[in-house]
Design goal:
0% helix; globular; three-stranded antiparallel β-sheet; Rieske Iron-sulfur Protein; mainly beta
């Protein structure tokens, strides 16, 4: 599989998450305050909650329901109640296009 365009870079709001779906895989795409784009699994590992509805702070995305924060770089939870990581995907920026291949996990 090849990377799929999920949105335009210009459509992303800084320090906010956007939910996209590629081949049935829900992904939260985040433009952080440093201008870097991240893609992590959109479902909190503590509960079936969309992380894209959560809060971005620095390099973390916090689940709005129970407060678990996940590293945008590693997918690892930084606090309880979540203890399992979410997947992190490689992001390719091509001009204004944001591309993600959900079959390729980002090397950490």
């Amino acid at each position: 599989m090849t990377a799929t365009r999920v949105c335009a870079l210009s459509e992303l709001e800084q320090d906010a998450a956007t939910r996209v779906e590629v081949d049935g895989v829900a992904i939260a795409v985040v433009l952080d305050s440093a201008g870097e784009v991240h893609a992590i699994g959109d479902v909190c590992t503590h509960g079936d909650i969309s992380l894209a509805d959560g809060f971005v702070e620095g390099e973390t995305l916090e689940c709005w329901a129970h407060g678990s924060a996940f590293s945008l770089r590693t997918g690892k939870p930084l606090n309880l109640p979540a203890y399992e990581p979410v997947p992190v995907y490689a992001v390719l920026i091509d001009g204004d296009d944001v591309l993600i291949d959900p079959t390729v996990k980002k090397e950490i």
